[in-house]
Amino acid sequence: MRKSWAFAEYQAETLLQLLETALELSGEGSAALVAMDGKPLHVRALHPADTATLPNAAVLCQQYLQLKDGDVALLNDPFAGGTRLSDLTLVTGVAFEAGDGKSGGGCDTLLARRLPFDPRVSVEGKIDDEGLRIPPMPLVAQGRTNVEILAAIAAAPSAPSNLADAISSALAGLERARAYLKACGKDPHGELRKTNFKKYLDTSRDAVNHWVAKLPLGETSVSARLETGEWLKLRLEIRDDKVIFDFTGTESSSRVQLTDLATFGACFRAIEAALGRKLPANAGSFQHVQVLAPARTWVNAKPPAATSRGVSDGLATIATLIAKAFGQLSTAHRAAGSGHAASRLRFDFGDGRSFSDATPGGAGARSEAAGLDGWSVWLDGEARALSVERAERLYPLQIRSVVLRPGSGGKGRWAGGAGVVKSYLVLESAKLSWALEQASAKPEGADGGKAGMAAELTIVRSGTAKSEELPSMGRLDLSPGDLVHLHTPGGGGFGEPEPAPIG
C-alpha cells in the first residue's frame, strides 16, 4: 500500500508503517485501529463493507462496554457495526502511553478484527434466517475469557464447527498486535503518540485530495434495478475536493438490504477502482467522500433486515452502477457491465455440515481491454472458495468440473470476460439454498458491444437425463446422485464487433 501514494511527510509515513504492522500481527482478514475519539486511524478492509463498519463496531463496543486495556468484546449485529451475522467482530482496548492512559476507559486506541464464516442464504429476507444476532458483549475482561458466552454462541444451530478454534486464534492475534503497540509506545523516540494522530490524518487527507482532483469534474445520474425489481438510483457529483454519492430515490427491498456504513464502503472502493490505486482508509481520507443514503431504502436498511445478500450482491450492484456513472463523466472510465455479483450456493447436509460457495462471473470489457474471465474486483473478500480437493474431503459432494462458460462474454471490439460453469454432484441427501442476482438482467454492453449471458442454475435429478432450470432464488431438497450446474454471468462487450469476414 505504501507504494501506491507518497505522503508529504516522513513522520506520517512512519506512523502508517507502524499501524500496518500492528494489523498484520493481528492476523488475516479485515482489521482496523481506531482512536478514542472514534476516528479510524487505519482500516485494512478485505471486503468493501468492512471499510466503515469495522471502525463503527469498535466505537460502539467502547460506548457500551467501556473496554479497559486488554479487554475484548464480541459482536456480529449488522446494526451495531457488523456486516452480516456470519461474520464475527472482536474488539480490544490498547493502552500504549504512560501517565494519561486512564482517559477513554484506560485505552489509547481500539483494535478490531473481523472473522468471516460461511454466510447463510436468506430466501425470505429475514435476519433470523441468517443465524444468531449478537450485540456487543464482553468476551474477555480482566484477563478472564467468558466461557459461558462462548458456549452459548457455539451451541447455536447456525454456529460454524470451527468457531472455538477461530476465536482462540483471533484472540492470540489481537494479543500479538497489542503487545507490539505497547512496545512501540514505550519508545521515547517513536511515532506512536496520540499527539501525532491529527498530523497523520491531515497528511492522509491532503494525499487523497491530490488523487481525487484527478477525477473528472461534473454531475450525472444513473439507475438500475435489482433482480427483485427494486430501483437503485444514484446522483454522482465530483467536486475539486469531494465525491458525493446521493442515493435519493432508491427504493426499499425485502431481500437485498444493507446498512448505510456498508454502502459507504462500496463508494470508497469504487473511487479506488476509478483511480486504479489503493487509498489510505482512515478518517482523513474519508473527508473526501459524502454518501447520502435515505433511511428505509435498501442502501440504508433498519432492523430486522437481513443483510447477507446486500453485503454480497447489493454492494456489487452499487459499485457497478458507480462505475457506469464515472464512465458517463469521462470516456477514460467507460466500461461494459460485469457479472459483478457472486452466484452463491449453500448445501446443508443432515449431519450438521454445510458447504457454501461463491463464484464470480466475467468482468465487463473496457475501451482498451477485454474483460477478465471469472473475476470481480468486488469479491476479494466474498469468494473464499475451498480447493476442490479440500471441499470433497470435508463434504459429501464432488465438484465434477470448473470451466469457463463458452460464449458467455458479450461480443464487441473488446469481448466481455467469460463466466464460469461449476458442477456439483451430491453424494448424500442435502438441502440446497441459492441466490443469483443476475439471472434475468444481462450485463450490458457499451458503445455497441453486446450483453453478456445472464446467470443460470440447473439441476439434473439422479436417474434422469433431463435438465431443469431453477429460479433465481430458492431452497430445494437434494437426493444422492443429483447434479447441480451453476452458470455465472459473462461480462458485456465494448465497441461494435468487427464484421465477419466475407467468404
What's the layout of helices and strands?
Elements lengths: L9 H17 L4 E5 L4 E5 L5 H16 L6 E4 L11 E8 L8 H4 L2 E8 L20 E5 L2 E2 L1 H8 L8 H24 L7 H19 L5 E8 L5 E8 L4 E4 L13 H16 L7 H4 L2 E4 L15 H22 L13 E7 L4 E6 L28 H7 L2 E8 L15 E7 L3 E6 L20 E5 L6 E3 L3 E6 L4 E5 L16
Parallel strand pairs: 10-11
Antiparallel strand pairs: 1-2, 1-5, 3-4, 3-6, 4-5, 6-7, 8-9, 9-10, 12-13, 12-16, 14-15, 15-20, 16-19, 17-18, 17-20
Could you please describe the fold and organization of this structure?
The chain is an alpha+beta fold and 503 residues long. It folds into 2 domains: 10-203, 2-Layer Sandwich (Beta-Lactamase); 334-503, no CATH class. The protein is built from 10 helices and 20 strands. It has helices spanning 10-26, 50-65, 103-106, 147-154, 163-186, 194-212, 260-275, 283-286, 308-329, 388-394, and strands at residues 31-35, 40-44, 72-75, 87-94, 109-116, 137-141, 144-145, 218-225, 231-238, 243-246, 289-292, 343-349, 354-359, 397-404, 420-426, 430-435, 456-460, 467-469, 473-478, 483-487. The strands form 4 sheets. A 7-stranded antiparallel β-sheet has the order 2-1-5-4-3-6-7, sandwiched between helices. A 5-stranded antiparallel β-sheet has the order 14-15-20-17-18. It has a 4-stranded mixed β-sheet with strand order 8-9-10-11, covered by helices on one side. Helix 1 packs across helix 6, helix 2 (50-65) runs antiparallel to helix 7 (260-275) and helix 7 crosses helix 9 (308-329). The longest helix is centred in the middle third of the chain and has 24 residues, at 163-186. The chain is globular, with a radius of gyration of 23 Å. The termini are far apart. Residues 1-8 and 100-104 have low confidence and may be disordered.
